[in-house]
């Protein structure tokens, strides 16, 4: 089957580069937002990577103790065994107070310092509670470990050009009632000259599986009903097309729904290639997925298509 000339498309569906390309697989930064985005501490804490999260907690801890050390400095003789003007000694006393550490030789000598100690003890309780809650939320949040093939391929399957990519669960356990949604994102211009980002769902040969345990090859036929019908490798590059994959299912161990997202850019798609087989049977009769060859491809002719690689 030969893919038709893209010039046969109606003008309303033609692709355009009139607008700057969207960022590849990343969320855009929106200007003009109010400040609530940056004050959503809980959400930002869950989104941050582990190094950033730990560093943030450390900086907050140091800042709190520095503030209380500065308050202790306002009463030069309010702490025993602390020389007037010794900020470091008061900082250490603050850390010991906040952490309920009782081996210090410094004790309050004034009611003013007593009040500050009580305030810091209360702040320390709140800080420990917040940190514990954030750690629990991050540790208990279900996460997926799906691997997606890189690249995707376009080849002839049952005489029809077909987009294929595959995914596997790296944990090796079973994912129940798994489903996948594939969307083509591109710039499109209407008859009136209005250019906007367009999203078309790609119909799959199989979009759900009751049991996902090994490898799953996801296929979309590029026939007359496909948004990719008539598209060439050069058009994928010129029109900033992206294929967005959303995969979800219920992890049988975590007993919760897990999600994964992957984006294929034009240079991630190979034309006239197919994936090598990654499934084999062990001597004990168990199925094995060889992830070392998961991204490997081999030539496979595709009639009527100009190869992009």
Highlighted features:
alpha+beta; 309 residues; disordered N terminus; 5-stranded antiparallel sheet; 5-stranded mixed sheet; single chain; Helix Hairpins
Describe the model:
By secondary structure, the chain is of the alpha+beta class. The protein has 2 domains: 36-140, Helix Hairpins (Orthogonal Bundle), CATH 1.10.287.70; 144-299, Immunoglobulin-like (Sandwich), CATH 2.60.40.1400. The chain is 27% helix and 28% strand. The chain is built from 6 helices and 14 strands. β2 and β3 form a beta hairpin. The chain starts with 35 loop residues before the first helix and ends in a 10-residue tail after the last strand. Residues 1-25 have low confidence and may be disordered.
């Amino acid at each position: 089957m030969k893919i038709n000339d893209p010039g046969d498309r109606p003008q309303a569906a033609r692709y355009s580069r009139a607008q700057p390309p969207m960022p590849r697989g990343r969320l855009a930064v929106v200007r003009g937002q109010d400040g609530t985005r940056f004050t959503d501490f809980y959400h930002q804490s869950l989104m941050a990577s582990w190094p950033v999260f730990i560093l943030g907690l450390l900086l907050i801890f140091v800042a709190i103790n520095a503030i209380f050390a500065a308050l202790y400095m306002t009463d030069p003789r309010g702490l025993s065994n602390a020389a007037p003007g010794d900020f470091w000694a008061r900082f250490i006393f603050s850390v010991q107070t906040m952490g309920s550490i009782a081996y210090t030789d410094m004790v309050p000598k004034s009611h003013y310092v007593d009040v500050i100690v009580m305030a810091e003890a209360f702040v320390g309780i709140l800080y420990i509670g917040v940190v514990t809650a954030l750690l629990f939320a991050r540790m208990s949040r279900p996460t997926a470990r799906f691997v997606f093939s890189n690249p995707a391929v376009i080849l002839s399957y049952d005489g029809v050009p077909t987009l294929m990519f595959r995914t596997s669960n790296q944990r090796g356990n079973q994912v129940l009632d798994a489903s996948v949604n594939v969307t083509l994102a591109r710039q499109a211009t209407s008859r009136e000259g209005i250019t906007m980002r367009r999203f078309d769902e790609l119909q799959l040969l199989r979009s759900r599986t009751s049991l996902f345990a090994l490898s799953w090859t996801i296929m979309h036929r590029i026939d007359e009903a496909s948004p990719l019908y008539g598209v060439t490798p050069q058009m994928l590059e010129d029109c900033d097309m992206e294929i967005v994959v959303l995969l979800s299912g219920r992890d049988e161990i975590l007993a919760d729904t897990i999600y994964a997202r992957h984006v294929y850019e034009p240079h991630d798609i190979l034309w006239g290639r197919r994936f090598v087989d990654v499934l084999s049977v062990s001597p004990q009769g168990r199925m094995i997925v060889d992830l070392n060859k998961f991204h490997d491809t081999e030539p496979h002719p595709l009639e009527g298509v100009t190869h992009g690689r």
